[in-house]
């Protein structure tokens, strides 16, 4: 399973970034934390609009199964849904990327049914 986690840094000990579209990095790991791919999301950090949609499209291209983040706006959420990517929130309360993946594996993160923040957050 490919799990994407919004991150403030480039390794699994980095803090989870609560933002999705404007996160500094998005790390893609497998459910066992054995493989790591770093997506530099800097192009979207200062984007005027569409940051979430662009980030969601990137995850779709990478064939991600699940996104762990803090907040996801409506346009990004719809784009993720269209790509078949489930979104779990509250990952930012876990601290690190590694802790968020472990919390997800243990069933402690709930899937969102809809966006949990207005656009342009």
Commentary on this structure:
With 121 residues, the chain is of the alpha/beta class. The chain has one domain: Dinitrogenase iron-molybdenum cofactor biosynthesis domain (Nucleotidyltransferase, domain 5). 27% of the residues lie in helices and 19% in strands. A five-stranded mixed sheet has the order 3-2-1-4-5, sandwiched between helices. The longest helix is centred in the middle third of the chain and has 11 residues. The chain starts with a strand and ends in a 16-residue tail after the last helix. 42% of the residues are buried.
Uncertain segments are none
In CATH, the architecture is 2-Layer Sandwich
Helix content: 25-40%
The succession of helices and strands, N to C, reads EEEHHEHEH
CATH structural class: Alpha Beta
Structural class: alpha/beta
pLDDT average, as an integer? 92
C-alpha geometry: globular
Domain Dinitrogenase iron-molybdenum cofactor biosynthesis: 13-105
Protein name: Dinitrogenase iron-molybdenum cofactor biosynthesis protein
Organism: Desulfococcus multivorans DSM 2059
